[in-house]
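Run: sequence + calcium ion -> complex structure.
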Amino acid sequence: MRLLVVEDDQLLGDALQVGLRQAGFVADWITDGISAEHALATTDYVAMVLDIGLPRRSGLDVLRRLRAGGSKLPVLILTARDTLDDRIGGLDSGADDYLVKPFEMAELAARLRALVRRSGGTSQPCLVHRGIELDPAAHRVSFRGRPVELSAKEFSLLQVFMQNSGRVLSRHQLEEQLYGWDDETGSNTIEVYIHHLRRKFGRDVVRTVRGVGYLMPRETA
Ligand code: CA
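>> structure
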């Protein structure tokens, strides 16, 4: 669950990156509007946290241009206190939600989870698939009613598969969701994590589609 965070305040940006990581997201942090557009053009994000007052290009301009290009990326804007115009302008420009600074990290994480959930076409807080139940808020997974211990990356990978069941995902797409710019990626780590998931949830939980990628088969009714 890779997010783009655009915030020019160093202290807040740093806190956002750390806090969102603790909440189970991967967060890339950018400090100006032009760099944000470059990042959006080259990386696949599940959502964006966007400050309004930014150098080089304002958050509202970034948002308008994003929507003009047809993007449906969930966007949560951050606005200063007492700036009703910013909030209205942001929502009218295509923001999905907003928070007024200062805010609680736990609330930001919960709102982002809700946005990502809705953009995936479901309002269910828990993901359920063939006996696997994944609770993004509590960061818990169970299989056939029993709790399963997963590493942070295994959890993220399982979540990406559950949100995209029935779709083939390339290794590159999976890596994009699992790693931020600051993370080191080994050459075969995705395969290792998939191996772990198969060991914990059964061989067929994720299928290899030769030469293309990996697939969590859609649940058959
Ligand atoms: Ca700012």
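>> summary
The two ends are 27 Å apart (CA to CA). The chain has two domains: 2-119, 127-215.
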